[in-house]
């Protein structure tokens, strides 16, 4: 599936690829190299560096980052800490993220200068993009190994702590699936936008807004896994998976799991991988090559707009939904205001991709959160969502990807490999803490897989002979 996406390049590019592949044929494995010298000695980030990326240290001086609040790590710390028993001070509140400033350590220091263009040398133990994606998937969410779904790391950011319930019966009656394509209730099946919640209009940046599909949920006690996500009759008719996924044993319930889990995670996952690459780069090496074997020398984020219609899955807390009949066959759905989910501006039309550039200038975009948009590619190693595609150039010189992917690239890529991260990358505080946790989760998997090893406070690349076998 992945190769199918990549094989859309015009013939001229294919020829170019063949030449490049010859120039960059893999080198034989060698003994692991000694750790590279530390490019920059560890030091705490300066106030100016923090401000540049949109991060503030807690005013309480506790060493944590202000995540959910403007000035402090939590209200308790800002107020001087909570008093505990026997004169102890329990400094932080229950919802404090406790994210230390150290989490930004390597990110804020300049990585070594960019590798020279057309460098013919790969780092001795370089990963392919697919290897990196399959390893990263283990740090991001559920993976399927030997036919069994499980979570590989302790706190993966793409775990779903919810169960799907049957829709209220009167709503399922009023909103019968049309054209048999709904999971499980399409809001536009209700006449005249009767749903009261204004957010459900999903105003779009473009002419092709998302069509919301409602999923009724309750919280679960622990993270759910795709194979036991819904019982067979819980949500009525589910869209069958595409032929390729069905052939790989993927059920409709698993598909719904991924459509829910990938909602709103594009920014967090793409940025987490870009920050992983910067972390490796800052420790002196960028061990990644494209599918031709050409070293990746630049990385970052690429924004894109959805230009094909897509269905956005919205989970609603079942207990807070009220339905009032307003005429013959019409219903009004009310939600308690404070439990209504907030939608991203544009209804999710904007998408975020990982951007990579090889030493010969060829660009690639990659997506770890595909399936809610009708892109059903998966990593064969983990069955988790993933696709990548080459960036092409029109005759006028504009950048685009295969139109069948339904995305138009927006603006230029934001490089994460420069001396500084792009200004304000952590302006969205709610994304920041999740992104840093996702990055750390992926780095932990890379270390445990043996492709990164730590000395002092830095990582360096280790032999990867056995990685193929674990993929
Ligand atoms: Zn604090
Ligand atoms: Zn705190």
TrEMBL record:
Residues 18-47 are annotated as: Disordered. It comes from the Eukaryota. Residues 31-45 have a biased composition (Pro residues). This is Snurportin-1. It comes from Prymnesium parvum (Toxic golden alga).
């Amino acid at each position: 599936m992945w190769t199918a996406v990549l094989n859309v390049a015009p013939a001229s590019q294919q020829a170019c690829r063949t030449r490049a592949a010859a120039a960059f044929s893999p080198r034989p494995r060698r003994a692991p190299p000694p750790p590279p010298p530390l490019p920059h000695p560890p030091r705490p980030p300066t106030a100016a560096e923090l401000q540049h990326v949109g991060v503030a240290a807690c005013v309480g001086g506790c060493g944590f980052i202000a995540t959910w609040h403007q000035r402090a790590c939590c209200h308790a710390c800002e107020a001087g800490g909570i008093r505990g028993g026997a004169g102890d001070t329990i400094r932080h509140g229950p919802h404090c993220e406790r994210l230390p400033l150290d989490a930004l350590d390597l990110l804020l220091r300049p990585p070594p200068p960019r590798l020279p263009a057309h460098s013919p040398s790969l780092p001795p133990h370089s990963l392919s993009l697919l290897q990196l994606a399959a390893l990263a998937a283990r740090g991001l969410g559920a993976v399927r190994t030997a036919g069994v779904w499980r979570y590989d790391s302790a706190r993966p950011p793409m775990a779903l702590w919810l169960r799907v319930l049957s829709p209220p019966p009167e709503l399922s009656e009023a909103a019968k699936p049309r054209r048999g394509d709904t999971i499980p209730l399409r809001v536009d099946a209700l006449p005249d936008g009767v749903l009261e919640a204004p957010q459900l209009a999903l105003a779009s940046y473009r002419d092709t807004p998302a069509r919301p599909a409602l999923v009724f949920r309750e919280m679960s006690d622990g993270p759910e896994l795709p194979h036991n996500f819904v019982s067979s009759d819980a949500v009525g008719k589910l869209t069958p998976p595409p032929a390729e996924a069905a052939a790989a044993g993927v059920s409709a319930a698993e598909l719904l799991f991924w459509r829910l889990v990938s909602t709103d995670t594009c920014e967090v996952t793409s940025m987490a991988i870009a920050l992983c690459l910067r972390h490796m780069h800052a420790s002196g090496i960028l061990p990644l090559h494209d599918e031709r074997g050409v070293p990746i020398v630049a990385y970052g984020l690429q924004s894109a707009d959805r230009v094909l219609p897509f269905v956005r899955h919205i989970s609603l807390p079942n207990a807070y939904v009220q339905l009032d009949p307003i005429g013959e066959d019409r219903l009004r759905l009310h939600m308690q205001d404070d439990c209504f989910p907030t939608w991203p501006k544009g209804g999710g039309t904007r998408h975020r991709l990982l951007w990579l550039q090889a030493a010969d200038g060829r660009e690639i975009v990659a997506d770890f959160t595909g399936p809610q948009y009708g892109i059903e590619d998966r990593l064969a190693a983990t069955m988790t969502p993933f696709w990548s595609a080459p960036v092409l150039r029109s005759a006028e010189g504009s950048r685009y990807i295969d139109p069948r992917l339904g995305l138009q690239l927006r603006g230029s890529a934001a490089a994460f490999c420069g001396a500084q991260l792009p200004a304000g990358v952590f302006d969205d505080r709610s994304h920041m803490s999740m992104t840093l946790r996702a990055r750390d989760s992926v780095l932990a998997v890379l270390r445990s897989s043996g492709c990164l090893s730590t000395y002092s406070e830095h990582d360096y690349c280790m032999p990867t002979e056995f990685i193929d076998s674990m993929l």
